[in-house]
PARP-type domain-containing protein (Lupinus luteus), 324 residues
Amino acid sequence: MLSIIPKFLTLTALHSNLHTFLSSPVSKRIHLFHNSKPPMAFSSSSSSSVKVEYAKSNRSSCKTSDQEAVKKLLAGHDKFLEKVDKTTQGIENELQQTEASDSKERKLCASEAVVDINFSVSDAKSKYKDATLLPKWKAFQTVIFLERDDGLRDSSKIAAFDFDGCLAKTDVKRVGADAWSLMYPSIPDKLQSLYNDGFKLVIFTNESNIERWKNSRQVAVDSKIGRLNNFIENVKVPIQVFIACGLSKSGRVQAAIKEDDPFRKPEPGMWQLMKQHFNSDISIDMDQSFYVGDAAGRGSDHSDADIKFAEAIGLKFYVPEDYF
Ligand SMILES: [Mg+2]
């Protein structure tokens, strides 16, 4: 009898664990389930099962009283495993429901943010106000865009990125097409593999200098578009680009602005423009698409425009250091 006491104690401890687990709130149970490691007794290969298998194989050599005790132990163990199976199934169902609900919430959020944008090809200009754009670049309202980079394919899967502080390291004090460097060395490989996996790559970037530098707008336009052209050439992958040139009413020098520009992040206008007019009417798979940006509202971030942009659209969001 003494020989089975440790095994019995092990099972008692496991029953106690299960009781604690079952009496926890659902959110805690999901946490416990995710963080449990074998041998938390949620699989038949756990250490308790190994001990019971040992008891089974040695049953014939036990005394009668020990054999009765082993029988009880095995019966209890089977019931225990049955209960664990049911509980595991229940938790898996709860997890599936939670994931489905998250996805539904993202889609609902996206449908709430939809604004119809009237655009026709004749609306696309080759100048932004008094500044001339480089070839292939066009302007529509307060947006400058590169719609058709060579080799670009529209897709249901959108890999979207901010530019400054995400893909390119830039300095507000420096101007010019060459005044930038790659933010992370892994960027070219990552972007190329996304392209090869059928994603369309899109950059959504704010550039209020183009609006604010009224007397040197051409310099601001050439600098921004030049950097983007050079970046695309460097990473050797086609990218669609949208630059929001408008201002927000909250900016320090824009006291006279009454309304936020609808295309400036965190407003979702650039995304809606892409989705409604520059993706060949292909509906976007919001579960596979995502957005990466550095303005995530953290202590050292200059703003939360990127994370709010992703939330307004219903896109998954990553900060660059996590993604790259
Ligand atoms: Mg940024």
